[in-house]
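Minutes, project check-in
Item: structure for the 286-residue chain
Input as provided by the requester:
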Amino acid sequence: MAGLTALTALAPLSWGTFYVVTTELLPPGHPLFAGLLRALPAGLIALAVGRTLPRGAWWPKAAALGVLNIGLTFPLLAVAAERLPGGVAATLAAAQPLVVAVLAVAVLHERRSVWRLGWGVAGMAGVGLVAIGPDAALDAVGVLAGLGSAASMALGVTLTKRWGRPAGVGATAFTGWQLTAGGVFLAPVVLLAEGAPPAVDARAVLGYLWLGLVGGLLAFVLWFRGITTLSVTGAAVLVLLSPLVAAALGAALLGQTLSPAQLAGFALALAAIAAGQLPSPPRARG
């Protein structure tokens, strides 16, 4: 399982590059368009490679998973990032493992685990130390959007675990269903919210290719394959890697500095990720 966990972790690691790619390569003011190009083309490629369409009850299931994991998550994240400092938005997104821990009890009928909840809180606190600056301000709409994005993907992750993957359907085809459904849902939202696409230069093409092929196609294939096999709470806590990568890239590429408190937050979040892969001790259940 360690190898599968490491491969699954590559997904949130790649998502952590979104901030630096968006700010350094993409035209400003079109975050939803970036989300659309991250989802729909990758989904169509995955469908062409997988050569399998949903059947029967899997049509509405695939649509629901695509909307929850991608179609709602991407625009809500964009709203949160637009209305909140990046650190606050990242910390709210880090609530996802907590939501998954609760949903695992309600939807998957797993036993309540104080261990999972405790480390989920610790991970969110660690991300907060890394990402939130002293001048962070809160905006009600932004906070609701950030929490909504975490809840949407948490429910999508939990239902992905509950429904599994149909027999004989590979991870690539399964991912293609969801990326395409999410992209189709997102397309009219982009048109209404942002209007015509921006002008695209060579740097933007490079950025969109990275987001679509690596942060979209490859990342979600690894992510959905991991979710269907790993513990859902163990997989969910891996998303904490995304804001950590974003902060590390900011320090390495953009000249940002990390304070002692931020380094302590890194250590706390990494400890939460590691602990989330371990089985809950008997005394931590109940």
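Outcome recorded: The chain is about 75% helix and 0% strand.
No further action items on this chain.
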